[in-house]
Design goal:
alpha/beta, single chain, 6-stranded mixed beta sheet, Rossmann fold, about 170 residues, SAM-dependent_MTases_sf
Length: about 170
C-alpha cells in the first residue's frame, strides 16, 4: 500500500490504477491538474488534464483525445449529464471513481463555491447501469470506507459504510 499519501482515497485509487494500467499507457484525466494527477505523474504515468471547461457543455478535448485511458476521479457527480460525456469518450479504457450516496448524509454542496456541488451521488448499481448504457463493460470494481476523526453517529456509520466506488471498464466491441 502507498501509505505516504495523506488521503486514504489516494492510496486506494493508486493501488487500483496500478492493478490495471501500466505507466506506458497515456491518460486523459478529466478535470484540471489536481493533487491526484500530480501523484500519477510522480508514479510515472503520462497524464494530461482537461482545462476546467464545463464538460456538460464542452466535450471537445475529450472527443479529440487519442489517449489509451480516460480517468474521472470524483468528477461525474458534478455533471448534470454524465451520459453524454461517457458516450463521447473515444478511448478504449476508463477508470472512474465516485463518492457513493450515503443514506445518512445529504448530497455535498459547498457553501462558498457555486461549482463545488454534487448533482448526482450514485449508488454502485446506478454507475454500473450508466456505464452499460453508454457502451462500457466493467472489468473490475472496488468500494472502500472513509472514516473521519470525529465523534457522532454519522462518523460512526462512516467506519463501515462504503463511501467511494471505483470501476475499471473497457469499451464494448460492436
Amino acid at each position: 500500500m502507498y501509505k505516504y499519501y495523506p488521503k486514504k482515497r489516494y492510496n486506494e485509487t493508486l493501488s487500483f490504477l496500478k492493478k490495471h494500467i501500466t505507466t506506458t499507457e497515456s491518460i486523459l484525466d478529466l478535470g484540471i491538474v489536481n493533487p491526484f494527477s500530480e501523484i500519477m505523474k510522480k508514479e510515472g504515468y503520462h497524464v494530461t488534464n482537461t482545462s476546467g471547461e464545463d464538460l456538460d457543455e464542452n466535450r471537445e478535448k475529450v472527443q479529440a483525445t487519442t489517449t489509451d485511458l480516460v480517468t474521472a476521479f470524483e468528477i461525474l457527480e458534478h455533471l448534470l449529464n454524465p451520459y453524454t460525456l461517457l458516450k463521447d469518450i473515444p478511448a478504449e479504457k476508463l477508470i472512474i471513481s465516485i463518492p457513493l450516496r450515503l443514506w445518512f448524509s445529504s448530497a455535498y454542496q459547498s457553501k462558498t463555491d457555486k461549482w463545488d456541488r454534487h448533482y448526482h451521488e450514485f449508488e454502485d448499481w446506478q454507475l454500473d447501469w450508466l456505464l452499460e448504457k453508454t457502451g462500457w463493460t466493467i472489468i473490475d470494481s472496488k468500494k472502500w470506507t472513509n472514516p473521519v476523526k470525529k465523534i457522532g453517529i454519522r462518523p460512526f456509520l462512516r467506519l463501515f459504510t462504503p463511501r467511494y466506488y471505483i470501476v475499471y471498464a473497457i469499451r464494448k466491441q460492436c
